[in-house]
Amino acid sequence: MTRTVLPATAELRDRARAGLERIGASVPEGSGLRARTPITGEDLFGLAATTPAAAEAAVAAAHEAFLTWRTTPAPRRGELLRRLGELLREHQGDLADLVTVEAGKIRSEALGEVQEMIDICDFAVGLSRQLYGRTIASERPGHRLAETWHPLGVVGVISAFNFPCAVWSWNTAVALACGDTVVWKPSEFTPLISLACDRLLARAADEVGAPRDVHRLLLGGHDIGERLVDDPRVALVSATGSTRMGRAVGPRVAARFGRSLLELGGNNAAVVAPSADLDLAVQGIVFAAAGTAGQRCTTLRRLIVHRDVADRLVARLSAAYAKLPVGDPFDPDTLVGPLISTGALDGMLDALARVQALGGRLLAGGQRRLADAAPQAAFVEPALVRVDEQSDVVREETFAPLLYVLTYDTLEEAIALHNGVPQGLSSSIFTRDQQEAEFFLSAEGSDCGIANVNIGTSGAEIGGAFGGEKETGGGRESGSDAWRAYMRRATNTVNYSGRLSLAQNVSFL
Ligand code: NAD
Asked: How large is the average pLDDT for residues 8-34?
């Protein structure tokens, strides 16, 4: 199903400008960067990109602010995040508009992304009163052994287009609560939402009396991101994006003994066992595979189905795919918005051609849509392809709505297929058999950072730690104890005995 009417670029430009004005942000019009919308594929504004000298000054300012911020009591730091959360609530609709205009997300997902920002602010307010260390039993009498967590420094946040503001907030809210300051280099595809978030944080900082330079924004391409990668004043580089980007960033940060937190590509799979509730599975699979037009790092890309249920499930999925409304993401009936660029569409069509050449059978979708109405945009029907083997193309992440269906006979075989890819982000099993579910979650089961039962691979809550293994990079962000990556740990030994006793009974002097 395709909805044929798209808004005009001028209308989208006005909508973006109005949202930014309500937020209090202005567009630094200039050259070097362009804001565009994937809804029509056309440009909205020309923007001034950050110069290398301005990037240098921003890191210096954030470092200076860190020297004050690190000694501000953590619960007072939390006040900044409480105020930011309030401003995000107040402007949820404006921010969601910008997410839709720039990233092409449908309305409910754009609102959901802003909700994640609000939720992580709430989390960070609580966290600001819980940055606790442990006391450890000392082997020596009259000694106390403890650990203390201290702010780390400037955190460089590099983010991807597909979660243009939530990923920023996961990093920034936690880093600020931890006493760090942040310099953010967002995706070159999403400068407007970045300007809006930066403005709201600046407003919150002014209102609570926090240093303005606790947060700085750099606009530009990977060359500007590289400034953060190479600067020794940036203690932690938290980089979200493709594995290709992580391969470039990780070793460069390591070469200067900096810390990096990498959140890279996924190639997520779900196993569907014979006992699965197929009604629930179909809903979970279609959302995970086609939601956000297949452009989530946790998007479901491989379905590993027991042979006994494969034909039944595939028939139901094909029917559901045929009814997915593709089109204007502002239209409340649309479920699949545009891909970010025609390059992303080419990547999908190329993967489809490669897998079909290897014998893959296209079961549904895969056709470009709205090419006449918007030749520079990239609307496509989500595709479902049945394959007999996990070939190289299936083992790659194609960042588009392309779901491969494989079949299995034994759970061991399913898990071998599941884990037989270079990435390790998200995973799930649909089953009503508790033994199978527990096996999937065990050390012999899924090798991913996220492993779910009876729910799809996408749509994580902020309360848990988010991230994955292998080529996904190993980083963890957001909830649980992910905050520790943003702090440095000191181990303290305090001798209150009045005499010196050395550890391990060593005697000296
Ligand atoms: P991308 O790798 O093209 O760009 C991501 C960011 O990295 C951008 O800001 C870009 O300018 C910057 N960058 C690229 N090369 C760089 C370099 N050498 N030095 C410094 N900065 C550099 O990714 P994208 O197309 O924007 O996003 C899609 C990818 O991101 C997918 O692979 C997706 O799986 C991944 N992703 C992962 C997560 C996660 O949490 N694991 C979340 C969202 C997206």
From this structure: 95
Q: What is the DSSP letter of 30?
A: -
Residue carrying the six token digits 């209090």 = 24
* pLDDT at position 174 over 80: yes
Please give the Cα distance from 338 to 39 (Å, whole number). 6
**Beta-bridge mates of residue 379:** 369
The token pair at 245 is 């980007």
Domains of the chain: 9-264+473-489 (3.40.605.10), 268-466 (3.40.309.10)
Rounded to an integer, what is the distance from CA 446 to the centroid of its chain?
20
* C-alpha pair distances (Å), 303 with each of 124, 171, 319: 36, 31, 16
CA distances from 496 to 62, 140, 142, 146 (A): 39, 11, 5, 14
Ligand 1 centroid from CA 245, angstroms = 6
Tokens found for residue 53: 């000298």
From the alpha carbon of 266, which atom of ligand 1 is closest? 34
Dist CA 441 CA 55 (whole Å): 44
Structure confidence by residue, pLDDT tens digits, 452-491? 999 999 999 999 999 999 999 999 999 999 999 999 999 9
The amino acid that residue 429 corresponds to is I
Structure tokens at 326: 């593709």
Ligand 1 shell residues, CB under 6 Å = 158-163, 167, 185, 187-188, 221-222, 225-226, 229, 240-242, 245, 248-249, 263-266, 297, 397, 399, 425, 472
List C-alpha distances in Å: 414 to 53, 310, 390, 405, 426: 53, 13, 11, 12, 15
The CA distance from 381 to 375, in Å, is 16
Task: Count other Cβ atoms within 10 Å, centred on residue 455.
Answer: 17
Q: Where is 466: in which H helix or E strand?
A: strand 465-466
Residue with tokens 């060359």: 223
Position 29 confidence tier, pLDDT thresholds 50, 70, 90: confident
Residue nearest to atom 16 of ligand 1 (CA): 222
Q: What are the distances in angstroms from CA 249 to CA 230, 246, 261, 353, 404?
A: 9, 5, 10, 31, 30
Q: What string of DSSP letters covers 291-346?
A: GGGG-STT-EEEEEEEHHHHHHHHHHHHHHHHT--BS-TTSTT--B--BS-HHHHH
Quick check: pTM over 0.95?
A: yes
How far is the C-alpha of 228 from the C-alpha of 224, rounded, in Å? 7
